[in-house]
Amino acid sequence: MKWIEVNTYEEMSEVAANIFSKQIQEKPDSILGLATGGSPVGMYKELVKRHQADRLSFKNIQTFNLDEYVGLEQTSPASYWTFMHENLFNFVDIQPENIHLPNGKTADLTAECVAYDERIKEAGGIDLQLLGIGVNGHIGFNEPGTPFDSMTNIVELTESTRTENAIYFNDPSEVPTHAITMGIQSIMKAKEIVLIAFGEKKLDAIEKLKSGHVTEEFPASQLLNHPNVTIIFGGTK
Ligand code: GLP
């Protein structure tokens, strides 16, 4: 595991954008795994800038997002589909048919989980996966206690995660109780993984990860068993 300590959120975003730009330049038809939340916003801004200034092209890029809320319309203001369009997809030349997010609004959620992993496999697997980390160590929406061998599945969100994400909703009670998320095993299949975390809130989670103790009670710790992970982190108490 490679650790890169940064001084500012902007620096984290730039370092992460460098890794993604390099991947896109070296393999213009890369399969990218993408994440939502406050952590990647700066990196997406940086990628949009590079698309506009340096013609970094997403024309043949395919993306698979980690997760989506269950029960929200795709176009709901709080859906991850909307988040991704407002932060990245609307501003680059990605083809709509190359954008994949789990469908949290389908009648048959179990079938959607199986189909999502299948779609990733058919595309050739994820080349580069971006991750944030929840304060409780969740990755995607895989909460503590999730088996490491889990594939894409439906999860019940913890109170901690619902509270963390309430800022994206008009009222905390509107935060869905369930989500569909790539499993830990689905994430571990990516060829390369970049995890970004900045700020006081994330320090404990980063410290836990650094301790090297692998346990299902701290989902991100399974990344210690992956051969190609970079952690870009920073912030002080
Ligand atoms: C949500 C997402 C995660 C993300 C986490 C942290 O729970 N499902 O993928 O890592 O939020 O988000 P933030 O970057 O806003 O702290």
From TrEMBL:
Gene3D superfamilies: 3.40.50.1360. InterPro entries: Glc/Gal-6P_isomerase, Glucosamine6P_isomerase, Glucosamine6P_isomerase_CS, NagB/RpiA_transferase-like. GO terms for molecular function: glucosamine-6-phosphate deaminase activity; identical protein binding. Its EC number is 3.5.99.6. One of its GO terms (biological process) is glucosamine catabolic process. The active site is at D67 (proton acceptor), N136 (for ring-opening step), H138 (proton acceptor), E143 (for ring-opening step). Catalyzes the reversible isomerization-deamination of glucosamine 6-phosphate (GlcN6P) to form fructose 6-phosphate (Fru6P) and ammonium ion. This is Glucosamine-6-phosphate deaminase. The lineage of its organism: Bacteria, Bacillati, Bacillota, Bacilli, Bacillales. The gene is nagB.
